[in-house]
Specification:
heterodimer, A: alpha+beta, three-stranded antiparallel β-sheet, 13 helices, 27% helix, 15% strand, B: alpha/beta, seven-stranded mixed β-sheet, 19 helices, disordered N terminus
Chain lengths: 459, 438
């Protein structure tokens, strides 16, 4: 199976050459996702199937794509296969938040509603399996939309507070942080001890490869000594699909262990679609009109279609690196290393055995993440622990494909709450374990900063 | 080096605002029932709410067949605006007096070259239109020394054998009206003859897996027959494809209407106004939508070469009577299955034999053979339903029983043609007797 994957890598290189982009010969540095690398660099860059995908997997992949893009319908409906939306929810489709499989963004101000982000809620103290303790009425996220005749939970509005940071050469950069305001709360006050965390939707390509990184590799990296006060550790989370504790791989705080859990919980929490993993409607006891609303059945999405949605995300190819050999990009790459960024944003990892999708096995990939949680300082803290991840701790997000973000989604919004309007802003929010790296960037000249950003944009 | 501003605030500031802050948002809303894909909804939602601060867009999503029972319930579930591609639903809602008239706007045409895009009483009007054509993988075609076909007739050319992806109308929502373009322009008999001939040449497409554009871009086939916006959107998103509007074009409108029972009539009007404004119409040209505006002035701001149906209709043949097409839609789709889908392999063999025999006959000038081939062609294009019958309301309502008989008759004609051709071809393929008998 691995040899088939290698064939696919060779094919990807052949396509690359055929496109005339490899005058200096095939560049292994371009293969960010190993054999699951796509050379599409347009607005569909995050939506291509792995070139290594076999014909047998096409049916599941495209069914999953259809379901991912499907706008779900309020029950009862003639289109029973896609009914069951709500009763309370955030958005009616996966694609509504993950537009073109890319990242969400934060509203520019309080007038604009949240369309590609949500606000997580909890109360202090441990909840089920050591995770966040859901609010007894509002649960673990604010559902700001509801089916006709049912009250949505309320609206979350963002205001921004700006402050200015200065680089060593005197150039200034404005950073902003969000203040969250809740309005139209339909089921009573949230209470003074509520913990909140606004989060934008992350990109969804390349996730099968991240799922295939062996646990021991991540644990070994966590245990390894690192420079400049960098540590990193795995989050240990409850996986509702496997019904056991596993290491966290996905989510802004590595708070989700598997794509199956991630997909089922997002269907449940964001859309109100039940599955065998989350089988009861997303209504709390005081939400009586929600509890008595028609359901589309139990579950509303059955296992094969849920599985297809997972396969879709597992097989979305990673965009190839662009301009990796260019002089400024190479200088930026060197600066990335000098600043210590690569201690957490690991340039290279090797996948292990992916039991259900062998084509993802044994791949040398360039995700630029260690998938560990790190203390990122008080400036980014959300005050809401998630399993063992503390308020200040966040997972190192993968950087692959980040240079195509604006082209695909038409905006730039980085970090968990979309506060960063540029890569440089995102860097300047780094603190805690990443504080030394930020200070290193602060000392860079304007040219060096430009080279660094060009390198990031080549990913 | 020092940080020049205040230390970044911590999460507790979120909480402070939460407890003590209080923003006032006096909001109106408009409830819109639609079947548009998420990309379209998201773009209009963002633009409308930005242009109308304080008015929230709430979407209820239903496919057209699911929308009607929903809208026909008392109060229509609080829906203000119906915005979808289903002319039949709009005419039914209008006939039941469930719609309220839209304001007149002289800058919005009522028709394009005779093709109506607004209800005569303005109870509903088109908010955008789509057309049909051929999406092509130019690289693959060039490798075969072919170009993207420009006419419907070209799809039947032997060079495209197996390389054209053709949607099955009983399975693909946009396809029935597309074939009506050919039927109405060429006439029922001639139209079906051509559809059968290029149907034999094609690879049939049913939904559920990769899209037509995916398959053509990947090179599974070189040409896809499709509604334009799927292809134009893929191209605008950077996929290496080409799209050609053929010699005969038709339009498929999507409409907007305000329900008479709309609980938010002011907001409803705002939404319709926005949709039909220049700003709203420009959104249709977004890479993820690629529909055709109904406000002619909107084209001035679009990129050069953007297909403008108001201009193109003067240059191309525009078919067709939409109402007629809709009346016989189910019948035509069933007929396509009988003629093409259910017996495509045999149909392909038959047409290959016909083409081969025609070539040989043309080379040899054999009159009796030409007659046999002509008869075979007639048999291959024999139709179990006449044009007059296709307009029969009784037949349009129910034809399941007849369909079996149609299939048997079609087979009978085609088998006879195949037999005649086989005999002819084996005779013509035999070496001519030698004059030297020693």
């Amino acid at each position: 199976m691995i040899s088939r994957a290698r064939c696919a890598a060779a094919l990807a290189l052949a396509v690359y050459s055929a496109l005339g982009q490899a005058d200096s010969g095939p560049d292994p540095a371009a293969l960010s996702g190993g054999s699951s690398t796509s050379f599409e660099a347009g607005r569909e860059a995050y939506g291509m199937p792995s070139p290594a995908m076999t014909a047998q997997l096409e049916e599941a992949f495209f069914l999953g794509r259809n379901l991912f893009r499907q706008v779900w319908v309020v029950a009862p409906a003639l289109d029973r296969d896609v009914s069951g939306l709500g009763p309370i929810f955030n958005r009616p489709s996966c694609a509504a938040c993950h537009l073109k499989n890319g990242r969400g963004r934060a509203p520019d101000g309080p007038i604009e509603k949240m369309t590609t982000m949500l606000v997580r809620l909890s109360l202090p103290g441990p909840g089920p399996h050591g995770g966040p303790l859901p609010h007894p009425v509002y649960g673990d996220q604010l559902n700001d939309t509801a089916n006709p005749g049912i009250a949505a939970e309320g609206q979350a509005r963002l205001r921004w507070l700006e402050h200015v940071e200065r680089f060593a050469d005197g150039e200034e950069i404005a950073l902003r942080r969000p203040l969250v305001e809740f309005t139209e709360l339909a089921y009573g006050p949230l209470g003074t001890d509520i913990l909140i965390s606004p989060r934008i939707a992350p990109p969804v390509f390349g996730l099968g490869l991240l799922e295939a990184i062996p646990e021991e590799v991540l644990r070994a990296h966590a245990a390894r000594e690192k420079p400049d006060g960098v540590h990193g550790r795995v989050n240990e989370v409850w996986d509702a699909a496997e019904r056991r504790m596993v290491i966290g791989r996905f989510g802004w705080k590595a708070n989700v262990g598997s794509l199956m859990h991630q997909t089922a919980s997002a269907l449940f929490g964001d859309l109100g679609i039940t599955s065998s993993i989350f089988s009861n409607e997303n209504c709390s006891a005081p939400q009586s009109s929600c509890s008595t609303a028609p359901s589309a059945g139990s579950p509303e999405i059955e296992a094969p279609r849920l599985r297809a949605m997972v396969v879709y995300q597992q097989l979305l190819a990673v965009p190839a690196r662009r301009n990796a050999g260019q002089a400024d990009v190479k200088r930026g790459e060197r600066l990335f290393g000098i600043a210590g960024c690569a201690a957490c944003h690991l340039p290279e990892l090797q996948t292990g055995i992916h039991a259900s999708l062998p084509l993802l096995s044994g791949q040398r990939i360039q995700p630029f993440t260690d998938m560990l949680i790190h203390d990122m300082g008080e400036g980014l803290a959300d005050g809401r622990p998630d399993f063992s991840a503390r308020a200040t701790e966040w997972r190192t997000p993968p950087l692959w494909g980040i240079g195509l973000s604006e082209r695909v989604n038409g905006h730039v919004a980085y970090l968990h709450d979309g506060r960063a309007r540029s890569l440089l802003e995102a860097i300047m929010w780094h603190a805690g374990e990443a504080g030394a790296s930020r200070e290193s960037v602060r000392q860079m000249s304007a040219v060096e900063r430009t080279d660094l950003i060009r390198f990031l944009n080549s990913l | 080096v020092k940080i020049t501003d205040v230390k970044p605030a911590f999460a507790s500031l979120l909480l402070v605002t939460l407890i003590f802050g209080r923003l006032a948002f006096a909001e109106d809303k408009v409830v819109v029932l639609t079947s548009y894909p998420q990309e379209t909804i998201s773009l209009f939602e963002a633009a409308f709410e930005k242009a109308n601060p304080g008015t929230r867009l709430e979407i209820v999503w239903r496919m057209p067949r699911d929308a009607m029972p929903y809208l026909l319930e008392p109060g229509s579930h609080g829906v203000d605006v119906y915005w979808s591609a289903s002319t039949r639903n709009y005419s039914e809602l209008a006939s039941r007096n469930l719609l309220t008239a839209l304001p007149a706007d002289n800058a919005l045409p009522q028709e394009i070259s005779g093709f109506p895009i607004a209800d005569s009483r303005l109870l509903y009007r088109a908010s955008e239109i789509a057309s049909y054509g051929f999406v092509c993988n130019r690289t693959r075609l060039e490798q075969r020394y072919l170009t993207c076909p420009k006419t419907w007739a070209a799809l039947a050319e032997p060079g495209y054998l197996g390389r054209v992806l053709l949607p099955v109308p009983s399975k693909v929502g946009f396809a029935p009206l597309m074939y009506e373009i050919v039927l109405q322009r060429m006439g029922w008999q001639e139209g079906w003859a051509l559809i059968g001939e290029f149907g034999a040449n094609a690879t049939l497409f049913v939904p559920g897996g990769a899209f037509i554009t995916d398959r053509v871009a990947k090179g599974d086939q070189d040409v896809g027959v499709t509604i334009d916006f799927f292809a134009q959107s893929a191209i605008a998103n950077g996929i290496a494809l080409e799209f050609v509007y053929p010699d005969i074009v038709g339009f498929s409108p999507a409409h907007v209407a305000v329900l008479a029972s709309a609980p938010h009539p002011e907001a409803a009007r705002k939404y319709v106004d926005f949709l039909l404004s220049d700003d709203g119409q420009h959104i249709l040209a977004s890479p993820d939508i690629r529909k055709l505006p109904v406000r002619p002035s909107a084209y001035a701001a679009l990129e050069p070469g953007y297909f403008n149906p108001f201009d193109e209709a003067k240059r191309r043949i525009v078919s067709y009577d939409l109402a007629k097409a809709q009346r016989r839609q189910a019948l035509s789709s069933a007929l396509f299955d009988v003629l093409v889908t259910d017996r495509q392999t045999a149909l392909r063999d038959l047409w290959q034999s016909i083409h081969r025999a025609e070539r040989i006959v043309a080379e040899r000038g054999d009159a009796s053979a030409a007659g046999i081939v002509r008869k075979a062609r007639e048999a291959a294009t024999w139709l179990p339903v006449t044009a007059v019958q296709s307009d029969d309301p009784d037949l349009q309502r129910g034809f399941a029983e007849q369909a079996q008989a149609w299939a048997a008759e079609v087979d009978e004609h085609r088998m006879q043609a195949a037999k005649d051709l086989q005999s002819l071809l084996s005779r013509m393929d035999s070496p001519a007797p030698s004059a030297d008998t020693r």
